[in-house]
């Protein structure tokens, strides 16, 4: 196995964008996977995570959803980028569908077996891609954000796994229940796992867990949720 990274610059709505394609070129055709980063944007952490995913048998596109050269450097700059990005959810939908089209056209990607995973804001991107009717078979949100866009969804065909921290203040219990109701009413095949002693950013191994356990790395949850993801994707994408 020889997993490599290839910078993928592409035009799109509000572009250009600089994504990263990660996979084993010698492995032939494999399922394709979008990886949506947290609100800092695409970075080394995401590329390394994509390599781990590629080792499981996927061709992975780490998505640049902000635009080439636009990356967060701290909480303030990342928050502004995210605010500007999410200000127009219809534009977000167009960018996500464009990223999916880019993945599908990449060499060695099985266009009939596509999925998406995302972290934090990236988890919201996974949900919005599914809400937009994106042709993915499986989507996984890790400590995402759940508010629905202010317009009707398309038919959601994707199976969804939501991995959630119960103590996450960005997604209080009423937000968790609202998402489950939304997906149930849309007749989606969904799973929602909420982990105790866990808050937002539970996969961020460079962020200490705060005393309230509402924000930061939780190694048990990180391990358990990744295992849940691998089983889920294996079943959905076979």
Q: Could you write a compact summary of the structure shown?
A:
The protein has helices at 44-54, 75-86, 89-105, 121-131, 173-185, 219-237, and strands spanning 3-10, 17-24, 30-36, 59-62, 109-119, 138-142, 159-165, 190-195.
Salient structural properties:
8 strands, alpha/beta, 238 residues, eight-stranded mixed beta sheet, 6 helices, Rossmann fold, single chain
Structural notes for this entry:
The protein has 238 residues and is α/β, with parallel strands linked by helices. The protein has a single domain, classed as Rossmann fold (3-Layer(aba) Sandwich). The protein has six helices and eight strands. The chain has helices at residues 44-54, 75-86, 89-105, 121-131, 173-185, 219-237, and strands at 3-10, 17-24, 30-36, 59-62, 109-119, 138-142, 159-165, 190-195. The chain has an eight-stranded mixed beta sheet with strand order 1-2-4-3-5-6-7-8, sandwiched between helices. Strand 5 (109-119), helix 4 (121-131) and strand 6 (138-142) form a beta-alpha-beta unit. The longest helix has 19 residues, at 219-237. The radius of gyration is 16 Å and the shape is globular.
